């Protein structure tokens, strides 16, 4: 009969293995070397777009709330809320919370064209 200290049968021989010679840490199963997947070190880099500071002081909070309220009222139909999204991004750019980008590049060219057509020309 097996002793209670011997452990399960599948554990068997490998647990009783003795080191007949000095083994290197890799041979002994050292986890620190087993988890090293190569000598290359990972160098993180920021994304090309989309990385900007959070609005910790709520400088554009009113614009954000207007946009979110619009989404709630429209049943999450974002196209109905594009003017509010544009205003929110303009606020962030004005306060250096994101890089200044032309609104045309951010997908608001059609809204800018509508604004310029709606303004009467000054004589």
UniProtKB/TrEMBL annotation:
Location comes to: Cytoplasm
Q: What is this protein called?
A: Cytochrome c oxidase assembly protein COX19
Pfam families in the record: CHCH (PF06747)
Which UniProt keywords are present, listed alphabetically? Answer: Cytoplasm, Disulfide bond
Organism equals Apteryx mantelli (North Island brown kiwi)
- PANTHER family associated with the record: CYTOCHROME C OXIDASE ASSEMBLY PROTEIN COX19 (PTHR21107:SF2)
Biased composition range(s): Polar residues: 33-42
Record keyword Cytoplasm present: yes
- Give the main localization category: cytoplasm
Q: Identify the residues that the record assigns to the CHCH domain, covering every copy.
A: 60-94
Source lineage: Eukaryota, Metazoa, Chordata, Craniata, Vertebrata
| Glycosyltransferase among keywords | no
Give the protein family.
Belongs to the COX19 family.
Region of interest (Disordered), residue spans: 14-50
**What InterPro entries does its record include?**
CHCH, COX19
